[in-house]
Fold:
Amino acid sequence: MNKKTGNCPNFSMRQKTASVLVNKVIDKINKENLKKSNLIWLELTGCSGNIISLLDGADPNFKDLISQMVNFIYNNSLMAAEGEAAIRRLFSVADDDYILAVEGAVTTKDNGIYNIIGNWRGKPVTAYEAIKQLGEKASYVIAVGTCASDGGISAAKPNPAECVGIQSILNKKVIKLPGCPCNPDWFMGTLAYIMLCGEPELDDKARPLMFYSTLIHDICPRRPYFEKGIFASKLGEKTCMFKLGCRGPVTRVDCPITKWNHRVNWPIGDDSPCIGCAQFGFPDKMKPFISYNTTREESK
Amino acid sequence: MDEYKIVIKMFNNQKSKINDTIACLYISSKYHPPKNLIKHLGKKILNIKLLQIIQNTTPNFPMFTQAELTTYNGKNGNPAYIAINGVVYDVTNEATWAAATHFGLSAGKDLTNAFASCHAGQPILNKLKIVGKMADE
Amino acid sequence: MTKRIIINPVTRISGFMEIDAIIDNDTIVDAKTQGLLFRGFEKMLMGRNPFDAVYFTQRICGICSTAHSMASTLALEDAMGIAVSEQGKYLRDIIHACEFLQNHIRHFYQYTIPDFVKLPAGNPLFVTNHKDFRLSKPKNDIIVQHYFDSLEVSRSAHEMLAILGGKAPHNHGIFIGGITTQATMEKISKIRSILKKIKQFIYEKMIPDAYTIANYYQEYYKIGQGYGNLLSFGCFNKYIKLGTLYVDPLVYSNGTIKKLIAEEITENINHSWYRAQSDTYTPFETLPNPDIKKEDAYSWVKAPRYKDLPYEVGPLARMWLCGEYRNGISAMDRTLARVLEAKKIVEIMITLLNNLIPGVSVQQTYSIPISANGSGLIDTTRGALGHWIKIDNSVISFYQIITPSAWNLSTKASNNLPGPAEKALIGTHINNCNNPVELGRIIRSFDPCVSCATHVYSQGNLIKTLQLMP
Structure:
């Protein structure tokens, strides 16, 4: 919808990052130069919105992921099996190579009993125990979304379930893909990169540089309005939403490039401010999301 | 001291701006004697007017009490000011201070400790406009 | 012989859940539905900027986030005394309708179908524990194909949503006054072209597929009936110009339909791990405090009640109350009503799109009241959703959320009546106790969302050691 960004060669190249990587993986698998990876996707304390976001992936898409790229061993939202049979499947891969994707934070309160993911041999398995066991043995661990990366909204004050990001309880390096939810491109691109070349280049917060290197503010199509001090006074206006509380200047992610849902739109394109959902500290450090009483006069 | 180096760097970059000069003066008078500053800046400041200002140890500079600072919360027409190490800065139009808030902090407060824990050693204050200093209470 | 069956996790729902059923003579004589995830959103909301509730509460649920943006917006509008414009209402109801389509298509194909249709062998995601697959191979193959085709269709429903709502899940569009942006001609025509394809899929594939399954599993018209008490807060209704396109706030009990009286809604914590001054309270009264050691409690799901009785909510309740579906109340009827509701929603969306004036801006500058109360009651994908907000000193001082899944998965209240889903399980004959496929099928007919039942919690006893791996 945005013609300006649509024509930028840098933008259009970066839009293809994920699909180029995924296609390369599928191509290699078809030529038998690469084996499908085992993928476990655990949902922990969160909204299960990252798996829904993954289903929303268009290019690359979910069908290619499950049919051509990975053996999708476990996911609570989608797997046909249920009950102990499902949990048995989860632990059946524990001795194989597998990549672990996790969405949701880990509740640590009272030994983790605020989040039970299933029963194994008649006993409840806490998310905390599952992530500990499966996390340490995984070949790679990917935190999908802000809750798994940093606690996110599940850890919002006063953090009733004492939630933390999964890195806090694992001794193993966790690749973090914050975003509420995580954009399907960011996950599938990272997964494909891992299958092709191993760990991607990460920043000091363990985020893949290929998706998390740019400040939203620096590539925002509304940046010229900021420079000129032309600020929206309410939602729905087409100028800079800095005074309404836009967190684009502190949020580092490819959102303006990848956009959402077949690249049709993104929050700023919807005339609403960025709420910093992909930034560490979201939501408490990104609040308030929307303010109308910010001082608008030019300071002298 | 970090602030001192920042002041010199800032001065070299933006010496044409009188506000920055005042900033140099203020911070230097707080942490270092003016003579020391002159020595460090060396021949770069031959401007007599500037020397006169620097040698004047009581600059004409707004003073803020903690209570006064709270009104500068960036809301309802008030500018957004924050205090760090005794200096009051204007963040009204600072990009990272959308809606006069920054990573859970709000304007109108002394953020010396928060600044030290998050931005120690980062030369980021020099792009902020200085608007006053905190009164000793 | 008495047997106990525990299914945990109940997969293909949103969130974590356990079914704990007591079987006597192959028939379920008692059942507990328990959510296994605690988050505590209401407590998190205290002290926040009231406007933030719209984006914040969406994070309760990834599959029905739009529902919470609707309810929180309505609660804020009520508190602030803002009347939404007719165009604003059309715009946000279009976004809400997109969420219905996304949810219903995914719930039918990705969550329900694997219970009845044998999905391709070789994919670990499709391994099942039971063998009760009855469709002929050609019919089975067709629905398998539609399982995969549906992925593109459901995601395109979210694509429509994002055109007006910025992104999905967790949209930015729905807000006080309607939506944030304007519906340009370009956006409207893009939505129309996607909707055309979705409509075709629903009419030509989804509805016939549902009836195919119903035909092969006819006993499910008799299974999972529950109380037959139905409730709706209403949705796609009370338009100034268009009147009611779907359903008004109504309740059905003992064969009669009556107007819903919001003041009759209470929550009960008699059998839940909470304490409050009174075990029964109205939504504005009390936010109870957790208490693990409470006696006689067995779950952290609270028990919403209407006139002290449990009520079922969701697509079947709505379709029944508006008179469009009267075949019966059962597990299969719930699934059919949901699929038929998708068609109804498409029709409503077309009407709303036809009445849109392109380019209308509905946003204003809003100020937060120093002190106010408001409630937002709306029927959403899974049923009746309520948000109740109190504002003091211009920040949120109280927030109550009663979700559709809290109605359906509710615990026994003071009068010991089981919750609607528990009631639907009780009395069911189990063909094979080693593979009790009936339980999951009944529970999924409610489309439970345990992510939404934010107050829920596990058995209540501290688990000292967990034997995990052999």
Q: What stands out?
A: The beta strands of chain A are 37-43, 70-74, 99-103, 106-107, 116-120, 123-126, 140-144, 163-164, 174-177.
